Amino acid sequence: MKAVGLRLWLSAYKVEAVLFLVGFGVLASFSSQRFLRQSAAPHFVYQAQSWLEGRLDVDPQVLPNLEDWACVRVKEGKKVRCEGKLLPGDRWYVSFPSFPAVVMLPFVALHGYQFNDTSFGVITGALALVCFYALLRFLSRRGESTRSQTENIALALLLAFGTLFFYCAIRGEVWFSAEVMGVAFTCLYVRNAVGANRPVWAGLFFSMATLTRTPLLFAGLFFVLEALCPGPDRREQLQALSRNWKPAARKLGLFALGAAPLASLAAAYNVYRFGRLGEFGHAFLYNNRVNVDIDRHGLFNLAYLGRNLEAAFLKLPQVSWNPLRLGYDPHGLTLLLTLPLLVFLLIPKTRPRLHLNLWLTVAVCALPGLFYQNTGYMQFGFRFSLDYTPYLLLLFAVGGWSLRHRGVLAAVALGVLVNFWGAVAFRGYTELVRNW
Asked: CA angle 162-163-169, nearest 5°?
């Protein structure tokens, strides 16, 4: 009976199963020797194990490194960043949103501090590929997209191997693990937010995404637009709200209800650790190069805009001629090379109902990364763009350009080639620490 059920399931989801296997196989292959070992920055593993040991901070005696950890000291009744000589009362925490540690919790319970976050990231990447395909298929079935199954498969593979997702999914490490998991939760969120038809589920996955990557908080705009003015006659829909606002208010309320449990727990955890609802730890980074800027301008400031725009759009590959060598700037690389399809988003063939809502979501999700104190260093390409890359690919999916168009094919080929280079060439924290 179980065998029959499995065959039926595989028959119904054979495309998803094949995509998962292909994604897992390619990502694991490019992960190479990393796949078999824990990364050098397994922060979420240590956070999960600390919870299992009954403590909310991390034991400083077991820290694998001092890179991007938050250290909190109580001084005159106030929580401040640790400075100078470390004291016995100092408390250490992961300086990132905590939901990836929640996801890893059952596996850390089995493997402890040795849990392999690298192979886990590869599996998460393969699942994210499947989630994006399922989202594309859902939009096609709703009539929001005219893409065929073959085109949806191609676009899902493009996310996996033709964007910065590729190199992020093969590394483990706290920074990249969160980016990849954020893509997966974004797909689940949008799937439930379209049409605002499943507000509780949309709220739940929205909270998961936000508590994985904080800039995804701004993606809540997508649900708000779908609930209040989904289009295409947005002006009339907004005017009608004054006469009949209860259905929209109900959807927003259910969305908030779905998001509230995790959001409340995260807020309480932040208050316990750092004394503030919205503080995830970067204001308490221990002995970090970015602390000077944070103390001078804060985490977000107009002063950072210039260097982030440069990292996102102006950084080019570094070419040396004697000897011939191609390199990259670890501060960033233009999106016109890492995601060349951007050009076609600016000149869409069609502008269907979702077009404006997706663009507005991209715009608000991009703002935190552009005004943030850090470009994402060290990285291959502007990795913060992964927060809104699924929305950009959805814009292409509904934008009307044929995947057989020569220009589109050239852009896809360039994107795959550049990101193949990134997957092979990027040397980050793991390589610096372990000399792999």
From this structure: 105
Mean predicted confidence (pLDDT) in 370-388? 96
Q: CA distances (Å), 386 to each of 77, 121, 276, in order?
A: 39, 15, 27
Q: Can you tell me the mean pLDDT for 322-341?
A: 94
Rounded Cα gap, residues 147 and 24, in angstroms: 25
Q: Which residues contact 77 (CB under 8 A, 6 or more apart)?
A: none
Helix ranges, 310-353 (H): 335-338, 342-345
What pLDDT, on the 0 to 100 scale, is given for residue 1?
58
Q: Which amino acid is at 187?
A: C
- Segment 310-317 long-range contacts (CB within 8 Å, at least 24 positions apart): 311/375, 311/376, 311/382, 312/369, 312/370, 312/382, 312/384, 312/385, 315/382
- Of 50, 44, 104, give the one whose Cα is nearest residue 69: 44
- In this predicted structure, what is the pLDDT of residue 323? 85
Q: 4-20: per-residue pLDDT in tens?
A: 666 766 667 899 999 99
Q: Which helix (H) or strand (E) holds 327?
A: strand 324-327
234 pLDDT more than 70: yes
Q: Which residues contact 64 (CB under 8 A, 6 or more apart)?
A: 40, 41, 42, 46
Residue 403 has pLDDT above 90, yes or no: yes
Work out the pLDDT band at 307, boundaries 50, 70, 90: very high
Please give the helix or strand (H or E) that residue 91 lies within, else none.
strand 91-94
Residue 404 DSSP code: T
At 436 the pLDDT is: 46
Query: How would DSSP label each residue in 151-201?
Result: HHHHHHHHHHHSSTHHHHTTS-SHHHHHHHHHHHHHHHHHHHHGGG--HHH
- Plot region of 43 (φ>0 → left; ψ -120 to 50 → alpha; else → beta): alpha
Tell me whether residue 347 is exposed, middle or buried, using C-beta atoms within 10 angstroms of its C-beta: 0 to 12, 13 to 18, 19 or more: exposed
Residue 121 and residue 168: Cα distance in Å, rounded?
9
C-alpha span between 220 and 218 (Å, rounded): 5
Tell me the two tokens of residue 376: 């994402």
Widest Cα–Cα separation across the chain: 72
Beta carbons within 8 Å of 331's beta carbon, 6+ residues apart = 307, 310, 311, 315, 375, 376, 377, 379
Give the mean pLDDT of 297-305: 95
pLDDT of amino acid 136: 98
Please give the Cα distance from 229 to 95 (Å, whole number): 37
Quick one: 119 exposed, middle or buried, by C-beta within 10 A (0-12, 13-18, 19+)? buried
